[in-house]
Structure formats: C-alpha cells, structure tokens
Design a protein that fits this description.
This protein is α+β, with helices and mostly antiparallel strands and 419 residues long. The protein has two domains: 195 residues, no CATH class; 207 residues, Heat Shock Protein 90, CATH 3.30.565.10. Helix content is 64%, strand content 10%. It has a five-stranded mixed sheet with strand order 1-2-3-5-4. Strand 2 and strand 3 form a beta hairpin. Helix 5 runs antiparallel to helix 7 and helix 10 runs parallel beside helix 11. The radius of gyration is 38 Å and the shape is elongated. The C terminus is likely disordered. One of its GO terms (molecular function) is ATP binding.
Length: 419
C-alpha cells in the first residue's frame, strides 16, 4: 500500500506531473492554431465551448507540434526538462542538437508524445479536482444540490448522495494514477527517443579523447618543467650549502642559477596554466626550444653540480619549431632524471645529432652512481616516450655496458649541420 501511495503521490510522481503540466502549457499555442483551422472547417464560432471541437483542435495541433520539433534546439530543451523532472539518468540522454534526421524524427516523436500526454493530463488536472470537490462536499452542502450545476439526476437518490464523497476521492485517485502512469511511460520512452545516436557517441568519444590529450600534454609540461626545476634547485641549494664557507664564488654561481631557474619556471608554469584559464587574453610565455634555450638549460644544470658534456652536431635553428620544442623537453627530462637518480657530480654525456631524416638524442651516465628508484617514479620516462611517439619517433632507455643510456629518435624533414 505504501509503495502504491509513493507511486501516485511520491516526490518523483509529483515532479513528473509538473513535467506533464509543462507539456500541456507547450501544447496551448498549437491548440489555438488548431481552433483557427477547425472553426471555419466545422462552421462553428464557439469552438472553445465545445469539448469535441476542442479535442479536434488538439488533434490538429499535434502534427504541427511534430513539425516544429524538427528544429535543432528542441532536443536540448526536452533533455533538460527530462533530466530535471523525470528522474532519468543523464548518461542515457544525448547532449546538444541532433546530428541526423533520424535523431530529429525521434525528437519530434518525443515532443509530440510529451505535448499529447501533457495536454490530456493538464485538462484533467483543471477539470477533475473541482468536480471531485463538489462530489465530496455534496452531502453536507444542500445549496449545491439545489443549484444549477448540471449534476447527474442519480445524485438525487439518497444512496447515491451518500456515496458521492467516495466517488469524489476515487476520481482524484484516478487522476493521480493517470498522471503517474503517463509520467512513467514518458520516463521509459525518453532514453529511446532522446538518447544518444551512434554519431553522438562518436562525437562524445572524440571530445573525451581531445580532453584527455590536453590533460596529458599539460601533465607532461608540468612534470618536465616544474620537476626539472625543483630537482635542479634542490641540488644547487644543497651544493651551495656544503661549500658556503669555502667556495663563495660557487655559492654565488649556484644562487644565480637558482634565481634564473625559478624565474624561467614561473614563466613556463604560467604558460601551461594559461591553457586552463577560459577567456584569459593575457599573453603567455612561449614554450622553450632547443634553438632558444639549450645553452641556458646546460648552464643551469651544471650549476647544480652535474658534470654535463654536450655534443651538438646539428644546428637547432634548422629544426622545425615543434621538433625543437619536444626535443628541448626530452633533453630537460633526461638531465633531470640524471640529477634525481645519479646525484650531483655525476658525469653525464649528452649528444644531439642528425642521422638521415632523424634527430637522435642520447644521454648517458654511469649506472654505478644511480641510486634506488624513487617510489612512484617512472613518469619522466613515460612522458619522454609519449612525446616521441606523438611525433612518430622511438624511445629506448635502460642499462647497457655499465651506463644508463636514454636514446630518442625523432623524425624530421631536414637536418643541416652548423654552417
């Protein structure tokens, strides 16, 4: 009994009833147009006062509603109403205007059903409660029996008069049952008529893939720039602390490198976060490239105590900007890994060379100096591999011949040696 009462008068039933009333309100303009058509056809001047003519006008208006529902904005409006009032899972409904005519036709079918059920339930909601209220109070209000309300003559009998309150309550329950059943039917049909089509699912998958690509790119940028800067600054500060009293020149050099590293990193961080700022028109610092900052990167890394021997056999200015940018990040992460795992004063060999149509980047450091892996580590090498793969290149990393070697090959259109 409690479940039946919840089905008729529960919160969900009441919200669906409101949804039906909104459908009836949307149906009114189409009914008025139907009256304009039905009146001359039936040669009647009083369509509004005739229930059969009103029903005929309603029947004429529904096809007009179906035609107007073919417009693209009908589906977003309908989906918003269903999500808010019908208790349908949002994942079962499509977002945005329909992409195909088949989806538009399904939307038109839904819109017509919504207005059809809504118009009927709205009419019942206007007519039934007053009639039920009269039946309920009829035995105790004698004036109603004597008035000209057009009540059935059977109510003049005593037994019928005694049962009229029961009939009034039953009429209200019947109205609630019709509204609940209609709302339940619309909720069941909504996913089939307003649900995503294969084209919608494909578009959603493409949007998710694009969002994921942006997130991964931002994660790589933050990891490479901020992670490298923190590692370098930590080692620079540690080295400066150890020789604070004995080598003031090195300390000044280390502090200058810390200042330069943090300043550049703040600019890069602002550039990366600028992608996340919607409507931010401020200019952001460009991403660093080999051509713009290879020497600065090496200088800052060496200031932290890492002994880097660099062999550059190509002119970075001849590289495509995209390749130069990704190559810079790969070199930066390779040196950062050496800083993190091998420690300061570790010799690192860096080689940037051109081989045919490939740019080859190699870093090597002794494996004997490599410490234990950090918990949760490995993101740097994964980021390097992702960068290489996105450009159609390859990445190899691991111990070989007593050294830890990282080799990345990136395809390029043309590599020229320094002139």
């Amino acid at each position: 009994m409690r479940e039946f009462a919840r089905f008729l008068f529960g919160r969900r039933a009441r919200r669906r009833w409101i949804h039906l009333i909104l459908g009836g309100a949307l149906a009114m303009p189409y009914v008025l147009v139907g009256e304009v058509i039905v009146g001359p056809v039936t040669d009647s001047r009083y369509v509004f006062n005739s229930l059969p003519l009103q029903l005929m006008s309603f029947a004429v208006g529904l096809p007009l509603a179906a035609i107007t529902a073919l417009f693209p904005l009908t589906r977003p409006m309908s989906v918003a109403g269903v999500r808010a009032l019908c208790g349908v899972d949002g994942d079962e409904l499509a977002d945005g205007p329909p992409r195909t005519w088949a989806a538009r036709r399904r939307t038109a079918g839904w819109f017509t059903l919504h207005l059809g059920f809504g118009g009927v339930i709205s009419g019942m909601s206007l007519a039934v409660p007053p009639f039920a209220a009269v039946l309920i109070v009829l035995p105790v209000v004698a004036g109603l029996r004597d008035s000209r309300l057009g009540l059935p003559e059977v109510l003049d009998h005593t037994w019928a008069l005694a049962l009229s309150p029961v009939a009034g309550v039953a009429t209200l329950i019947a109205l609630a049952a019709c509204a609940a059943a209609s709302g339940n039917l619309l909720a069941r049909w909504a996913p089939a008529l307003l649900g995503p089509t294969p084209e919608d699912r494909l578009a959603a998958a493409e949007r998710r893939a694009a969002d994921l690509a942006v997130r991964n790119r931002l994660a790589r940028e933050l990891h490479d720039s901020v992670g490298h800067a923190l590692s370098a600054v930590t080692l620079q500060a540690s080295a400066a602390r150890r020789v604070l009293d004995t080598d003031p020149d090195f300390v000044r050099e280390a502090l200058a490198a810390i200042e330069d590293t943090t300043r550049r990193t703040v600019g890069e961080l602002d550039a990366v976060l600028g992608v996340l700022r919607e409507g931010d028109d401020r200019s952001t610092a460009p991403a660093p490239t080999l051509a713009a900052d290879l020497d600065g990167l090496l200088r800052r890394t060496r200031a932290g105590g890492l002994r880097v021997t660099a062999t550059v056999e190509v002119d970075p200015a001849d590289l495509h900007p995209l390749v130069s940018r990704e190559a810079y990040r790969i070199v930066q992460e390779g040196l950062s890994n050496a800083l993190k795992h091998a420690g300061a004063r570790t010799p690192v060999d860096l080689r940037i060379a051109g081989s045919g149509n490939e740019l080859e980047i190699t870093t090597e450091n002794p494996t004997s100096a490599t410490g234990a892996p950090r918990p949760g580590g490995g993101h740097g090498l994964r980021g390097i591999a992702d960068r290489a793969r996105l450009l159609g290149g390859t990445c190899e990393a691991g111990p070989a011949d007593g050294v830890w070697r990282l080799t990345v090959r990136l395809p390029v259109e043309r590599i020229e040696g320094p002139s």
